[in-house]
Amino acid sequence: MKIGSRTIKTAIGTPISISIAQVLGLTNFISAGILTILCIQPSRKRSVLSAWHRFLACVVAALFSITFFGLIGYHPIVIGAMLVCFIPVTVLLKVTPGIATSSVIILNLYSAGYISYTFLTEQFLIIIIGIGTALLVNLYMPSLEKQLKQKQDELEHHFQIILNEIALYIRNKNENWDGKELNICEDILQDAMDLVLLDKENHLLRNEHPYYEYFKMRSKQLELLGKMLPLVSRLPNRDSISLKIAKFFENLGDGVHPGNTASLYLDELEELRHTFDQEELPKTIEEFETRANLFRLLHEIEDYLLLKKKFKKSDVKEKKANKKKTGTT
Q1: Which residues does the chain have with pLDDT short of 50?
Q2: CATH of segment(s) 145-326
Q3: Measured distance CA(323)–CA(213) in Å, rounded
Q4: How far apart are CA 264 and CA 308, in angstroms?
Q5: Per the confidence metrics, is the pTM higher than 0.70?
């Protein structure tokens, strides 16, 4: 069983906060450890928000405790009455994650049976130690770059399979493929976007993420691949058109990578369109439907490539410019 970084940080931070509170001679020093456990979150952003929510909720809880215990007294019913008023206030202030933390402070003040300036100061020191330790420990976040790159490689591998299977179907009407790669890609994309969002939260001052647009683009491409499948199934068997389309899908499959060479395939697609325009006009309804499906398929392929072209700066512009200078093609 794998032990996550959050578990390790909790195991490190909790005894540290308890030790600090204990060395300072604070009453209820165990509460510092409880606060640390509650404040350690999966990302830096969530940790900072959690710390703020819990600190503010503790301040409000202290004010409520002074009011209710001081005016009414120390009785379990008073705690219930106070919570009836306290919880709606935390909802109003949007600090509900701090309810559990502030409850620790409320119970500490209740169990003491009195509220003095010294004891109240101790409680705030416990809050600062517990929350502060959690924030310091949570400054370290393991890089997710390796996991994101792995998701990218997995996704591109399955995109290659999908495109090559489409080519096989067009060429040989191979019906052995069950299309499971489409579902696998959806799962990979969901996991990848979760990782991207988590990684974004670990960089408090960075709004953009290099992988966010990539996986978003691949998600839209996957939708287009799903739309292509019914059109592919209606193409004619092994004529000049279908063989050229099959070869084009093979080339697309071989060219799946993080870079942007979409312009090359768009040029090839334009050549295909020109070739099809030279074909004889359809003579039967079946031929007309086939030609209509063909042009719809070409349109979907074009959208698929345009998504990649807009994703990032082209990697082939420089090559084309060099070719023009040298006169090569």
Answers
A1: 318-329
A2: 1.20.120.940
A3: 30
A4: 12
A5: no
